[in-house]
Amino acid sequence: MKMREELDRDKGKEKKPKKKIKSYPILVISGFYIVLFAAMLFYIARYSYVNRQTLMNNNYNKRQQILLAQNSRGKILSRNGDVLAYTEEGSDGKDKRVYPYGKEFAHVVGYASNGKAGIEASANYYLINSGAELATKVKFDAEGHKYPGDTVTTTLDVTLQEVAYNALSARKGAIIVSNPKTGEILAMVSKPDFDPNYIAQEWDKMLADDSGDAQLLNRATQGLYPPGSTFKIITALAYLRDNNNDYSGYKYSCNGKFKDGEDVISCYHGENHGGVDFITSFAKSCNTSFANIGLSVSQKTFNQTLEELMFNSELPLSIAYTKSSATYDQDTPRGEIMQLSIGQGTTGMSPIHLNMITCAIANGGVLMKPYLVQSVTTEDKKTVASFEPETYKRLMTKEETDILTSMMVAVVEKGTASKLKGLSYTAAGKTGSAEFNSNSDSHAWFTGFAPADDPEICVTIIVENAGSGGSYAVPIAKRIFDAYFGVE
Hints:
- The protein is an alpha+beta fold.
- It has 19 helices and 19 strands.
- The strands form six sheets. Strands 4-3-2-6-14-15 form a six-stranded mixed beta sheet, with no helix packed on it. The chain has a five-stranded antiparallel beta sheet with strand order 8-7-19-18-17, with helices on both faces.
- A hairpin with a 5-residue loop joins strand 2 (76-77) and strand 3 (83-89).
- The chain is globular.
């Protein structure tokens, strides 16, 4: 009876509703983190794909060792199929890298032991991978050999490389030969050099060398020099921009020296050029006239010209290089402006940078991105990658390049590069004699292209401590131009 009463009493009690858990904020936060996690995965995957070569070449990436354990390093070929580097099995059973041309391609092809340099470094990703067909891999497995790495075909021309190498002879310096219409690098020489076949044996000796030779340095891309009178190309361009391309009224009387306050600029060997106009100042490479020109250009225009021509900036190159440097701001003293105007003072420029500016002039103001690799193929001749000419950016207007080209032709026809005059082709160029110490010792420069009216080849040369560009660099340029155009 009592039990029934308790049940009845419980039935009469009002039941309290259960509390609902508010789950909406949790779902929102969970969804946010799921989306964020997915985005991170996508970013990592995309970054890894886009930068796969950089990541592969990282010394901490063990994937390289794994690939080299199963693949032999691929060949490097010239544009015409000449073998520049290949791998063979040494007497100790280990892979041995062979460079048939020895020192001739030392810096541009590079090396693959004791670190990597040149094309061996920039194309490392392709060289250590093997895209051979399964049947080909089975064949190599059966023979007990590693799989063949992919073959890299370069833009390099053996004939031009050999001509440039021999022309520089025992001198220190660098030479770059390129196609201004495509950006292809046809030859690249740097001296002093080394034999990459013996890089491992000579490594410690070269590192310990304190003679200043810096054999491992690729002077063509990593060398930084005062550009001397070749910089007058940039000063002339700044003047044209500051005067709406009107140079007809420029006149100057050269007596061999130009004085501004306590600062003095002299022409090379104190030469007196007399009365000169804008074109003749450039053709005769008159330092005093260009010091005067430089001071007349506004700081804003000069500085913008330097920026647009990639000074103090990154260059579009796949191999190691040094940035060129030139400074002109509101605090730059007039004496330093004069030095800048003739490519002296603190100004430093790499040969490859000068070559790129020269190529832009030859190509109507448009700079094509310099490149060294044409294609990558497998052992079965299947194309893995191919590289086409690529526009980098416009550096100058067509009108500006037309004027600069006419000025560079005048250098050949009536100026300091007269050794290129009267040939079967018409060349355009600019010489330079860049002083680098207090004794007035100078590097010899030349940069130019041919034919002047429809350029096919661009050549930039520096010969260290050689003196006049017209006497030492121009004859080298002639040998390279002659080889290209088949002149005996």
